[in-house]
Amino acid sequence: MAAAAAAVAEAGAEPEHPAVRGTLTAALFCPFFGQMRTFLTLALAGLLLAPAAAHAQRERLSPEDQDFVEKTWPTAKKTNTGIRYIIEKEGEGAPPKPGDKVSVIYTGTLLNGKKFDENLDRQHPLVFRVRRMAVIEGWDQVLQLMKLGEKRRVIIPPDFAYGSRGQLPNIPPNSTLVFEMELIKIERIDE
Predict the structure, then answer these.
(1) Does 107 lie in the same domain as 89?
(2) Based on the domain organization, do 103 and 171 belong to the same domain?
(3) Which of 106, 128, 156, 186 does the annotation list as catalytic?
(4) Are 145 and 102 contacting, i.e. CB atoms less than 8 angstroms apart?
């Protein structure tokens, strides 16, 4: 080890200041510092690769579903959680907040177009409180982005719908769901 340190010093890699001399040698040849250097290198690589990994994690659709969705609805925007949507009719005002009571009319289909649920009755819409686990997670996320009177086509990945369990017999496991939904009323919790 002393010979290796002397070779480093002769090559000019060691700083000439006596207070610093030996520190670099220790860092280069000490097993602890070698492990630390490996750890720091791996940590830096992780930081550099994190944005790509985060992007990949946001894609929640299977490759087949993703291809179909991108071809069928090429103008769909994507939330940071991977839910896709198209605003078909603009709304007004502030979106609902957790705890607000909302009234929604909707049609739900599978990607193949098969309808599994529908409520288009404006006199008897689906009424529930946002973020109170009354509906699938995808609805809770999307409704907090919608304004009163807004109508959206929403493509919800299985992770934010019924996941691997499905909702048999109408919704098979791991189904991506498509909703045509309109927010027709908001009752604010703080009013």
Answers:
(1) yes
(2) yes
(3) 106
(4) no
Q: Residue 170 above 50 pLDDT?
A: yes
Domain that holds residue 22: 2-58
Query: Is residue 136 among the annotated active site residues?
Result: yes
Answer yes or no: is pLDDT of 191 > 80: no
| Pair 67, 54 in one domain | no
Q: How far apart are CA 26 and CA 8, in angstroms?
A: 11
Query: Is 117 among the residues known to form the active site?
Result: yes
Q: Which two tokens stand for residue 181?
A: 């939904």
Q: Is 116 a catalytic residue?
A: yes
Please confirm, yes or no, whether 162 is among the known catalytic residues: yes
pLDDT at 129: 97
Q: Among residues 85, 128, 160, 162, which one is catalytic? A: 162
**Based on the domain organization, do 175 and 121 belong to the same domain?**
yes
Residue 32 annotated as catalytic? no
Q: Residues 6 or more apart from 67 whose CB is under 8 A from it?
A: none
pTM of the model: 0.70
State yes or no: pLDDT of 16 exceeds 60: no
